[in-house]
Design brief:
Layout: H1 6-13, H2 23-35, H3 39-56, H4 59-65, H5 79-89, H6 91-103, H7 109-122, H8 125-148, H9 155-172, H10 175-189, E1 197-203, E2 215-221, H11 222-250, H12 264-277, H13 286-300, H14 308-317, H15 325-335, H16 342-349, H17 351-354, H18 364-375, H19 377-380, H20 386-397
Length: 401
């Protein structure tokens, strides 16, 4: 696609055009790759879906459960978080319901076998550990994903959010956090040993002047090395890889975020780099303009804008575009660089509510108008339709029968 697809065609028309992957989609792919990196993670998500399928297949089973469980979805990104949260919230109720169905002689043999199989999977320390661990991970990723879907988000905020997740994952990759999750899982499941846990003998090297050698037994958890650390390493690797692309797109604009912290010489050098990249859009006076703008922000003090949007707002609010025309151009170039296309996709999904089987013969022009009205619902909801209805009724009344 990069050499012969849409990107190549756009690059051919405008070599300065930048490809920006959707930040929210990229974060969703990070979670997907982390789940596929080890067997235990895949089995756990399959278990979530099996629990949902088992109880929703029968109204009787749902009544026995008397709680809510969620299933997975291929299109809704928050479904995994919802499913994991529902499992953690209703853990004891699910266990009790499965025990009742398993021990009920009036139930079908297939139902009892399915309940027994799910119960065996839930009754181990690995599942309890992953339910708590994934519950916290998916919840933070889900909230971050919702923030990345905002209409007014920019690349600076995207890099900031990705870095926060990277730091969060690095903090979790420690023995103390592993022991914390393990202790919570033991309290939850009442099981103290992993099924994959073994013991090995560690023999310390003995020196000639010491007494008889002593063997010390050290507990070795296969689960920590092959599941816990693997998932966190995969998450970190994917986050850093994708964040690097956004940082490369933002690197020439980084000095705008640190204007008041940098010296005038550094501001001038960074501005010249950006000006050389966009020679047709930014004048050679751009560097000197940035130095002046730095002084302007310093004079404002604590009320100086911190984000790119705030800077653009100050230029317009105080009518300063005439003083800093090329700064306004450069800031708008950064703001116009898309960080997420979720709102665009969401607008296309509205078409299924606009064009139904009752409107199968609708014209393209009318379909476009209805779609715009549906997308811009916040604006259309404020319109008074009484005058429009009366005018329409008057026009229709003139038609000859």
């Amino acid at each position: 696609m990069y050499y012969a697809g849409l990107q190549a065609k756009i690059k051919e028309a405008n070599p300065l055009a930048k490809f920006v992957p959707c930040s929210a989609h990229s974060l969703n792919l990070v979670r997907t790759n982390a789940v596929d990196c080890c067997t235990q993670a895949v089995l756990f998500l399959n278990l979530l879906q099996n629990v949902y399928t088992f109880f929703t297949a029968s109204t009787h089973r749902w009544k026995v459960l008397n709680a809510s469980v969620k299933g997975l979805s291929e299109t809704r990104w928050s479904a995994r978080d919802d499913a994991c949260q529902s499992l953690n919230k209703n853990w004891s109720l699910i266990i009790n319901a499965l025990n009742l169905l398993n021990n009920d002689d009036t139930e079908k043999t297939l139902t009892r076998n399915e309940a027994s199989g799910i119960l065996n999977k839930l009754n181990n320390l690995e599942t309890a550990f992953l339910s708590i661990f994934w519950g916290q991970i998916l919840h933070r990723f889900n909230l971050t994903s919702k923030k990345l879907q905002a209409v007014n988000i920019d690349l600076g905020v995207v890099c900031e959010l990705y870095k926060s997740l990277i730091t969060y994952i690095i903090d979790l990759r420690s023995d103390k956090n592993y022991q914390y999750f393990k202790q919570c899982a033991i309290e939850k499941s009442k099981i103290k040993q992993f099924q994959s846990c073994t013991k090995r003998l560690k023999i310390r090297k003995q020196f000639f002047d010491e007494g008889p050698s002593k063997e010390t037994t050290v507990e070795y958890s296969d689960f920590k090395v092959k599941t816990y650390f693997v998932i966190l390493d995969q998450l970190r690797s994917q986050l850093e890889k994708r964040n690097e692309k956004y940082e490369n797109l933002l690197k020439n604009y980084n000095f705008f975020f640190k204007l008041t912290e940098m010296t005038s010489i550094k501001v001038r050098k960074n501005a010249e780099i950006l000006q050389n990249e966009y020679k047709d859009d930014l004048s050679t006076l751009f560097a000197n303009e940035c130095v002046h703008f730095r002084s302007h922000l310093l004079s404002i003090g604590d009320e100086a804008p911190k984000t790119i949007q705030d800077m653009c707002g100050v230029l317009r609010k105080n009518d300063l575009i005439g003083m800093y025309p090329y700064i306004d151009v450069s800031l708008r170039m950064l703001l116009c660089t898309p960080a997420s296309n979720c709102s665009t996709e969401r607008s296309f999904s509205c078409l299924k509510r606009v064009k139904t089987y009752l409107r199968s013969c609708i014209s393209a022009e009318r379909l476009s108008d209805l779609a715009i009205m549906n997308i811009e619902f916040d604006v259309t909801a404020k319109i008074e339709f009484d005058d429009i209805i009366n005018e329409f009724a008057t026009l229709q009344s003139r038609r000859k029968i």
